[in-house]
Design goal:
Layout: E1 3-8, H1 18-28, E2 40-44, H2 58-69, E3 74-79, H3 91-100, H4 105-108, E4 112-114, E5 123-127, E6 135-139, H5 140-143, E7 147-153, E8 155-157, E9 161-163, H6 165-170, H7 176-183, E10 188-190, H8 200-204, E11 210-213, E12 216-219, H9 229-233, E13 239-241, H10 246-261, E14 269-275, E15 297-301, H11 304-317, H12 336-340, H13 347-356, E16 363-367
Parallel strand pairs: 1-16, 2-3, 2-7, 3-4, 7-14
Antiparallel strand pairs: 1-15, 5-6, 8-9, 10-13, 11-12, 14-15
Helix pairs in contact: 1-2, 7-10, 10-13
Length: about 375
């Protein structure tokens, strides 16, 4: 039987707004009957780096939380801290950033929990049957939760092509050691012709892998972890990824962490992708560029592969917005991801996830209006 992905457009009226549509989407994918009173349910999202404004708004998270609470289960809103130095590098800074962005108990109706503990060291080893891993460390609060609702901002990503449900429950559930393992074979490269020697990348590098040599940035591959923080801080885009086989490997490793995240949660995992303010970069950057396409609505499924595939299809079918990071792919039906990140095979995460049995790319798209 083909899996269903449900889609809610951005259209609304006085009788049915977008919050009402979120309720309907969650009903369509079976959330109301999935949880029991003793269940602890992780609502996994991304709180956004300080300065970023493209993340999923708290008002939408509250609607999801309220639907979980109606089942009698207890919900908490969560994310794991980052590998790189930033405003979410430990639980204290992460909570401060979340609160600054409006994610509080009073706005959500549930507590905010940093899933991997104070210094990103709280994890549970989970056995999987992957190509790269047989065991992965999963952030403790995710691993021990009875259920998972992934609320993801669908956008482009400089290392994986796009970020949706798979990235949210893959990269997003890993403690620092897991993120380091995923990124370890990816190395940025400096375009010396573009580099102005402003040293912003030197200051941003947690691992002291960058130094200035003759007023040009130079990366030591022996120290570099490939966290890509330097890509986000360079104002002249002088740093890029040294693309090789590692780009596919990163995506495959990320998906294998997603496999660990859903372990022992059969029938209790749900996925909502918000295809709004589709930025060309990750919400981990302390800014967000202009959206690439108009807001396309919310997609929901019990299958993370199908929901991500549906969002990729919708993105590429949409008209591009002039004045965005798109160079050529403005016409409907053109590949927006390849236009922004040429040569990056973003299908690798979808293919590997399907191979692992996380879901299926083939789906039926059902509109609820």
């Amino acid at each position: 039987m083909t899996v269903k992905v449900y889609h809610a457009s951005m259209r609304a009226n006085v009788r049915r707004n977008l919050l009402d549509k979120i309720d309907l989407l969650l009903n369509k994918i079976g959330l109301p009957s999935a949880f029991e009173k003793h269940h602890l349910v992780a609502v996994k999202t991304h709180f956004g780096e300080e300065g970023n404004t493209a993340f999923v708004r708290p008002v939408y998270l509250r609607q999801v939380v309220q639907n979980v609470l109606k089942t009698g289960a207890r919900a908490f809103v969560t994310d794991a801290s980052t590998l790189y130095r930033g405003s979410r590098g430990d639980a204290v800074a992460h909570l401060e950033t979340a609160f600054h962005h409006g994610f509080t108990y009073s706005t959500l109706g549930a507590p905010v929990v940093i899933a991997d503990g104070l210094r990103s060291a709280a994890s549970v080893p989970v056995d999987i049957d992957g190509q790269h891993y047989k065991q992965v460390p999963i952030a403790e609060s995710i691993a021990l939760a009875d259920g998972l609702v992934a609320v993801s901002h669908f956008k482009l990503h400089e290392a994986t092509g796009f970020g949706g449900a798979l990235k949210n429950i893959g990269m997003g559930v890993a403690p620092r050691e897991g993120k380091l393992s995923m990124h370890s074979s990816v190395s940025p490269v400096v375009d010396k012709n573009r580099c102005t020697g402003d040293a912003l990348c030197v200051q941003a590098c947690t691992f002291k892998a960058i130094k200035l040599v003759n007023r040009k940035a130079e990366i030591n591959p022996a120290l570099c972890t490939g966290c890509a923080e330097c890509l986000g801080v360079c104002p002249v885009q002088a740093i890029g990824i040294r693309w090789n086989q590692a780009r596919e490997v990163l995506q495959q490793r990320m998906v294998e962490f997603a496999l660990g995240a859903v372990n022992k949660k059969d029938g209790r995992c749900f996925y909502l992708n918000f295809v709004m303010r589709v930025s060309p970069g990750c919400d981990c950057f302390g800014m967000n560029d202009a959206p690439l396409v108009p807001d396309l609505g919310v997609f929901a499924s019990i299958d993370p592969v199908a929901v991500d595939q549906a969002c990729v299809d919708a993105l590429n079918a949409a008209p591009g917005l002039p004045g965005s990071a798109l160079k050529k792919a403005l016409a409907p039906g053109t590949d927006k991801i390849d236009d922004v990140y040429p040569g990056l095979d973003y299908n690798a995460q979808l293919e590997h996830a399907e191979k692992l049995g996380l879901g299926r790319r083939k789906h039926d798209l059902v509109s609820i209006g």
